[in-house]
Known about the structure:
The chain is 45% helix and 19% strand. The chain contains six helices and five strands; from the N terminus they run E-H-E-H-E-H-E-H-E-H-H. The protein has helices spanning 15-25, 47-65, 78-85, 97-113, 133-141, 152-161; strands at residues 3-8, 30-36, 68-74, 89-94, 118-123.
Amino acid sequence: MRxxxxxxxxxxxxxxxIDIIRRASALVDKLVIGVAINRDKGPLFSLEERVAMxxxxxAKLSEQTDTQIVVHPFENLLIxxxxxxGAQIIVRGLRAVADFEYEYQMVGMNRVLDSSVETVFLxxxxxxxxxxxxxxxxxxxxDGDVSSFVTPLVFEELLKRxxxx
Length: 165
């Protein structure tokens, strides 16, 4: 069974993330969405809230793609998380050149730690390339409309969290 790991903070999950999940599902039999606990980022949503939103959105995708999609919170090294879930592939989404520079360094370090785990990059669809969770939160905080960047479920959760809905 080919297992892939798609890690991120997902605070919140966006249409760009969902696009990568949908396309990564075609490459593996099982896709693990690794939700980084990363306390340094000061997430807007709790770990439990992020996991619940991802599970809700991925349930539909799992049925559509016939790929098992599971959510797995982690707070250890990415390569250790890959070992924990039995992943042979780490899936990373790219939006721009700036993403590539960071990801290139990450791949190099992960290859030193375990060269048997391969990293695959997927470019976000053109219409999703500008979407970043950080920008979605900022726009929403400043009363901008983020409904075209997230699903209706996530949009509602954002409004509630920011006291706007």
